[in-house]
Amino acid sequence: MTGDVADVLARAHALLAELREVDLDDLGDDSLSDAVLTLQRLRGGLEVAEARVLSRWDAQGAWRASGAKTAAAWLAWRQHLPIGVARQRLRHAKAMRTLPMVEAAWADGAIDRAHVTALLGARTARTAEVFDREHKTLLDIARDSSFEHFKRACDRFEMVVDPDGAEQGADDDRNARELHLSQSFGGMWFGRMTLDPIYGEIVDSSLRLIERELFEADWAAAKERLGRAPLIMELDRTPAQRRADALVEMATRARTAPVGGRRPAPLFTVVVGLESLTGPVLEMFNRNPITPGTAARYLTGADVERIVFDGPSRVIDVGVRRRFFTGALRRAIEVRDRTCFHPSCDEVPERLQIDHIHDASKGGETTQDNGQGGCGYHNRWKYNHPSPSSSDDDPDADLPPPFG
User: Between the chain's N and C termini, which has fewer beta carbons within 10 Å?
Assistant: First the structure.
């Protein structure tokens, strides 16, 4: 290490030590929030500086003299890291040599290491040429949207650029499904489950519906017992216990279903006219992308609903669903929004609460443009917090808290 580099690192170390000693007691909420965001940018700059050093260190083979088998093994050994973390840091460092826009966004704190991991996951051997040419679009989404939205964009990019690879990946996911149940000597049962996106959604949505029933029963029982709205820890069962009971209840209901009864059919919502990255890719209602081949496998036993968009968000046509359809206007808003309106909330509720943007009592119309979907918490929250700032206060202590 040259004197210049050693001097810079020594000064950086001194400044970090000074930062750790800053008195935070007199800082208000806005100042603390600004500090959090500034530290995000500083962390990005530090990680990129580390990546530059790692890249040169690895290229020169500076680790070889130690006898370590690989650069990652040296990092894991000397920095006491999991080997997977060491490999990831080196992979990121190597990638920055050829992705200057990603490096710049990372250094500015506009993206995090998690974004870099997702971007490099989308850059496979079969997508690299298009990725190197078009990844600015993904970077723009990373800067302006939630991480969940960005990750879905990366998944859609892979599907559009490499549809054959996406179908193969979907087949691999389906073939990887497994369920293991084993009983201990003491009689307890243990299990592990791996499901593809479709099977996982079927099981999860059914389990959540039953869990919600159990939660409401627990809530009502505790409220009657206490004579007031209970706290979560005052309910008879923990969330994990309710999920276990819901699984048993799901199995019990399956055993008692009528012989010859109609099996529930999945509903595929086909969305036309999403952002340009979507292309021919399909999304489930919870926004998880699936390949056309995956959807086709289920279409013979599914209900299909047609939703046509005019521009990025306005629904101009909703086809009739043959079963359990309760209203085109509500369904249009459900499919258009699919997540809560609050920018901090990526929750996809089992059923969105549709409410007026401009209150109906103040002249707001019941139209698509004046409707928005939200989770239960934020639909209550907005009436006590007209500004877009966040709050942890429950707007109505007599109502059950958000479920999930």
Answer: N
- DSSP 8-state secondary structure symbol assigned to residue 144: H
Tell me whether residue 347 is in a domain: yes
Domain assignment of residue 186, yes or no: no
- Rounded to whole angstroms, the Cα distance separating 316 from 311 reads 10
Residue at token pair 């968009």: 309
Q: Is the pTM of the predicted complex or chain greater than 0.70?
A: no
Cβ burial, residue 115 (10 Å; 0-12/13-18/19+): buried
Asked, for residue 199, whether it belongs to a domain, the answer is no
Q: Cβ atoms within 10 A of the Cβ of 243, count?
A: 15
361: domain range? 267-384
| In contact, 94 and 58? CB cutoff 8 Å | yes
Q: Which two tokens stand for residue 338?
A: 């699919």
Query: Distance between CA 308 and CA 318 in Å, rounded?
Result: 7
